[in-house]
Inverse folding.
């Protein structure tokens, strides 16, 4: 009996899903060719917009894999990272920008190298803080509200990370 490799089921599901989508498009092409054409054009425009982002992510992951070893990840965001891991996850989450899906492959790679799930959750939670939008927020809501909200977001992100780590054990 053959042993199943890790991720083999996911790959098979992805192929089945792709085949189902292609089949659905072919069936719909018979009934609504004009809508299928518009759909494919919209998909093409979307691909043109996100391909540069994916290339940037692939480039960043390549550089990260070259310079960042599992030992480095373990030191800064691994099991023994302590408070510096929480600070790093919080600060990088606040400083990160762009679409969220761009960060998923990078975080997956860091997780494979030993990043704690709680720190990953803290990073993602702190992405709610958008530095370029802070002046606008202050204009509409006032400085006191914004400062209190940011403090609450940061505290909640760390609590969320701790809760995830508790449930993971």
């Amino acid at each position: 009996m053959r042993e199943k490799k890790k991720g083999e089921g996911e790959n098979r599901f992805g192929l089945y899903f792709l085949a189902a989508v292609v089949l659905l498009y072919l069936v719909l092409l018979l009934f609504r060719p004009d809508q299928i054409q518009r759909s494919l054009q919209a998909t093409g425009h979307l691909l043109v917009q996100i391909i540069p982002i994916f290339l940037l992510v692939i480039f960043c992951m390549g550089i990260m894999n070259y310079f960042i070893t599992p030992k480095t990840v373990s030191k800064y965001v691994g099991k023994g990272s302590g408070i510096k891991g929480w600070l790093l996850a919080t600060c990088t989450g606040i400083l990160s920008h762009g679409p969220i899906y761009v960060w998923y492959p990078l975080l997956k790679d860091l997780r494979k190298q030993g990043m704690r799930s709680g720190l990953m959750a803290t990073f993602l939670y702190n992405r709610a803080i958008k530095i370029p939008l802070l002046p606008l927020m202050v204009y509409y809501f006032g400085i006191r509200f914004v400062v209190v909200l940011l403090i609450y977001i940061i505290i909640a992100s760390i609590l969320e990370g701790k809760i995830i780590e508790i449930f993971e054990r």
Notes: The radius of gyration is 21 Å. The mean pLDDT is 85. The chain has two domains: 34-67, 68-169.
